Amino acid sequence: MTFGTWNVRSLYRAGSLTAAARELARYKLDLVDVQEVWWDRESTVRAGDYNFLYGIGKENHQLGTGLLVHHRIVSAVTRVEFFLGIGYHISF
User: Fold this and answer.
1) CA distances (Å), 5 to each of 25, 27, 36, 59, 60, in order?
2) pLDDT for the residue 48
3) Distance (Å) of CA 81 to CA 14, 33, 43, 55
4) Distance separating alpha carbons of residues 86 and 20, to the nearest angstrom
5) What dotted CATH number matches 3-91?
6) Under a CB-based contact definition with an 8 Å cutoff, are residues 64 and 36 in contact?
7) Phi-psi group of 8: left, alpha or beta (phi > 0 → left; psi -120 to 50 → alpha; rest → beta)
8) CB neighbour list of residue 34: distance below 8 Å, 6 or more residues apart
9) Own/partner long-range contacts of 19-28 (Cβ < 8 Å, ≥24 apart)
10) pLDDT in tens, 59-68
């Protein structure tokens, strides 16, 4: 299993999430923590072979964190927390 972290600097633009999923597949990564996703709600979406679990950023589409998890291992993820106390860059 391979892990990574990536400051994506925004997945808010159209097509950005799909492009990010393609890059992860190219590097054969299974789980990647991403920062500065710039999405303003909390949810899960599918992007290629990955599930994108993301937390709340600021209302003006700034900051925020998320996890891109390959579909082979997504069932092993039982809980994800996005911490909003000190900053918008902590997820576990």
Assistant:
1) 14, 12, 11, 24, 23
2) 93
3) 26, 12, 12, 8
4) 27
5) 3.60.10.10
6) yes
7) alpha
8) 5, 6, 7, 8, 11, 20, 65, 66, 67, 68
9) 20/47, 20/68, 21/47, 21/48, 21/49, 21/50, 21/52, 21/68, 22/48, 24/50, 24/68, 24/70, 25/49, 25/50, 27/2, 28/2
10) 555 667 888 9
pLDDT tens-place string over residues 27-48: 999 999 887 776 767 778 899 9
Q: Which two tokens stand for residue 92?
A: 């576990």
Q: Where are the domains of the chain?
A: 3-91
Question: CB–CB of 14/39 below 8 Å?
Answer: no
pTM: 0.79
| Cβ(53)–Cβ(74) below 8 Å | no
